[in-house]
Design a protein that fits this description.
There is one protein chain. The chain has about 375 residues and is of the alpha+beta class. The protein has a domain of about 130 residues: 3-Layer(aba) Sandwich (Glutaredoxin), CATH 3.40.30.10. Helices cover about 60% and strands about 10% of the residues. The chain is built from 18 helices and six strands. Strands 3-2-5-6 form a four-stranded mixed β-sheet, sandwiched between helices. A two-stranded antiparallel sheet has the order 1-4. The protein is globular.
């Protein structure tokens, strides 16, 4: 995923949109109602590599192409150059590209996710959104209107890439319902919060996630917890870290904790103390099914001992439905470890996945 905070001027509300743009946005949903379809908005910008990759390898995939034609009004909007795109970027706090926004026919946001997705995983996300829409599961915090009375410092965040003034935010939020859209979005998008707002956010995490989706709130919770970790365990002390995890655990649901715990451990062992081996040992004992973490940490494996423990971890995480890149990493790792049986299994899965997705293997010249 390409992360980018906009530096070009951005409109603050729907009234500032050219009339044709506002009408075009309304027309999308008029058509969705007429054809009984959902709306899929592809937020991209010209020159975005993963956006182009989606265009060339995923949108053309037969099953994806068919589902889009049958069940969605599919619209692509350049969030860098299009006036409507700039307004939508502020409205839905889009800072990574590509981002996919899925709406029901009434213009209510049902699902959002970012980054390149292989065809089968993209198809799965589309079908999940269709099921959510059918069951009237929406991100109810977002209104369907483009006109939201955001404060000036929220507009400036997008217009000038200027961080939100925390003191100004705290003053503005006093006595307000911080779960309402015009107050919640500045809260969610502020890089840092004061202790009072941090506590509010953690205490109301479940409600905010239900209203605005996990993508917007998960990383913010991680940042708050990272700040607490730095304060409570300033030096390497694994016993204190274990106590910290026990203290933090109640902030997570039972479903979320396996993922949250590993995020916190990655920050503590790897990001702060640069001890990949310690993290890998932790991950073997406390694994989850997040194969993306396997993918990006693979590039940091150096020593033979790290490679051995990394291999143990990926065996617990990888399955035939993992991404083709992850499967290739797994096959290569097992070959290096001399586990040819596992290497062949992962290699076969990778080959089948590439064939399924019609991805041609790029061979690099040595």
């Amino acid at each position: 995923m390409v992360l980018l905070m906009m530096s070009l001027p951005i409109v603050a509300c729907a009234q500032e949109l050219p009339l044709a743009k506002a009408q075009a946005w309304k027309a999308i949903f008029d058509r969705a109602k007429k054809e009984n379809k959902m709306v899929l908005l592809d937020a991209y910008f010209e020159g975005c590599a993963p956006c182009k990759q989606m265009e060339e390898t995923v949108f053309v995939w037969p099953e994806v192409k068919q589902l889009l034609a049958d069940s969605f009004i599919f619209s692509k909007i350049d969030f860098l150059s299009d006036t409507l795109g700039k307004a939508l970027q502020m409205k839905y706090a889009v800072t990574g590209f590509p981002t996919f926004l899925l709406f029901n026919q009434e213009g209510r946001l049902v699902s959002r996710f970012s980054g390149y997705k292989e065809g089968d995983k993209f198809l799965k996300r589309l079908k999940e959104a269709m099921s959510q829409s059918k069951n009237n599961q929406i991100m109810a915090g977002f209104s369907p209107e483009l006109d939201v009375a955001y404060p000036a410092f929220y507009v400036t965040l997008f217009k000038e890439r200027k961080s939100i003034d925390i003191q100004a935010l705290a003053e503005w939020l006093k006595g307000k319902d911080k779960t309402k859209e015009m107050y919640a979005m500045p809260l969610l998008m502020a890089n840092n919060l004061n202790p009072e707002l941090n506590s509010y956010f953690l205490d109301n995490y479940a409600r905010l996630e239900n209203l605005y989706g996990q993508e917007l709130v998960w990383d913010k919770r991680n940042r708050i917890i990272a700040s607490r970790l730095k304060s409570e365990v300033p030096l390497r002390d694994d016993a204190k870290f274990d106590l910290f995890l026990k203290h933090i655990k109640p902030l997570f649901s039972v479903t979320d904790w396996p993922y949250g715990q590993l995020d916190i451990a990655e920050n503590y062992f790897f990001n702060i103390h640069k001890d990949l081996l310690a993290f890998l040992k932790f991950a073997v004992v406390n694994f989850n099914d997040d194969d993306n973490k396997v993918r990006y940490l693979a590039r940091n494996v150096r020593s033979e001992q790290e490679r051995k423990v990394f291999g143990e971890w990926l065996k617990l995480v990888i399955n035939k439905d993992s991404g083709s890149e992850v499967l290739s990493i797994a096959a290569s790792t097992m070959t290096g470890l001399g586990d040819m049986k596992s290497a062949k299994e992962y290699g076969d899965w990778a080959a089948k996945k590439r064939e399924l997705l019609k991805i041609q293997e790029v061979k690099k010249n040595n």
